[in-house]
C-alpha cells in the first residue's frame, strides 16, 4: 500500500483499537470527540490535530515511541501494484446497502487523494451526505442516480462524473444488481 504517513497513522489507530477490541464509541468517549470524527480519522478522511492524536494514542494505552516506530517516511519511485485482495473494506456513517473498499491513498502536491471502489444496492438506506473533497466517479457496472441541489444525474456503465462533493448529495441504485463505481476523492489542502 501507499507509504503516505497519514494513511499509515490512520491504519495504525484502527489496528490498535481493533486489537484491543475497543469500539469507535468507547474510544470517542474516552478522547472527548465524536464517533464520526474517529471514523473519519481511521479512514484517512481527516487529519487529527496533534492534541486529538495524542489523546487517541493515550486512550489506546500505546507508548508514543511504539506507535510511531517503523512508519515509512521515504517515497518510492517504484510502480505501485495493488492486488484486489488488498482492497480494504471500511465503514462510513451510512453504510446499509453500501460498501466502500479503499484501493489506495496518497498525497500529491500536499493534497490527499483517496481511491475507492464503491458498491450500492437498491435497498441502500443512504441519505444525503457531503464529503470534504471533490470527486471523480467512473461507473464500472450498473446505473446510479445522483441528486444534487434538486437536479438529477443518471450514470450508466462507462459514464464519468466530476463534482464538488462538499454539496449535499444523494446516490441511488437504479439497476437490479448493485452498481459499482470507481471513486477518486481529491481532498483540499489543509
TrEMBL record:
Pfam families: Cupin_2, HTH_3. GO terms for molecular function: DNA binding; DNA-binding transcription factor activity. It comes from the Bacteria. InterPro entries: Cro/C1-type_HTH, Cupin_2, Lambda_DNA-bd_dom_sf, RmlC-like_jellyroll, RmlC_Cupin_sf, TransReg_Diox_bact_type. The keyword DNA-binding applies. Keywords: DNA-binding. The keyword DNA-binding applies. GO terms for cellular component: cytosol. PROSITE patterns: HTH_CROC1. Residues 13-67 form the HTH cro/C1-type domain. This is Helix-turn-helix domain-containing protein. It comes from Limnovirga soli.
Amino acid at each position: 500500500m501507499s507509504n503516505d504517513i497519514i494513511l499509515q497513522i490512520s491504519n495504525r489507530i484502527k489496528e490498535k483499537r481493533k486489537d484491543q477490541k475497543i469500539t469507535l464509541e468507547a474510544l470517542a468517549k474516552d478522547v472527548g470527540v465524536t464517533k464520526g470524527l474517529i471514523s473519519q480519522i481511521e479512514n484517512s478522511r481527516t487529519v487529527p490535530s496533534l492534541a486529538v492524536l495524542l489523546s487517541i494514542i493515550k486512550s489506546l494505552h500505546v507508548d508514543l515511541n511504539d506507535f510511531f516506530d517503523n512508519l515509512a517516511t521515504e517515497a518510492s519511485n517504484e510502480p505501485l501494484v495493488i492486488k484486489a485482495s488488498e482492497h480494504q473494506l471500511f465503514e462510513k456513517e451510512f453504510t446499509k446497502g453500501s460498501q466502500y473498499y479503499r484501493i489506495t491513498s496518497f498525497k500529491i502536491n500536499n493534497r490527499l487523494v483517496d481511491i475507492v471502489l464503491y458498491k450500492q444496492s437498491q435497498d441502500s438506506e443512504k441519505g444525503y451526505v457531503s464529503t470534504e473533497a471533490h470527486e471523480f466517479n467512473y461507473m464500472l457496472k450498473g446505473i446510479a442516480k445522483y441528486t444534487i441541489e434538486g437536479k438529477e444525474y443518471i450514470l450508466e456503465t462507462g459514464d464519468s462524473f466530476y463534482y464538488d462533493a462538499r454539496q449535499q448529495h444523494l446516490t441511488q441504485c437504479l439497476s437490479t444488481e448493485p452498481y459499482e463505481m470507481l471513486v477518486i476523492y481529491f481532498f483540499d489542502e489543509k
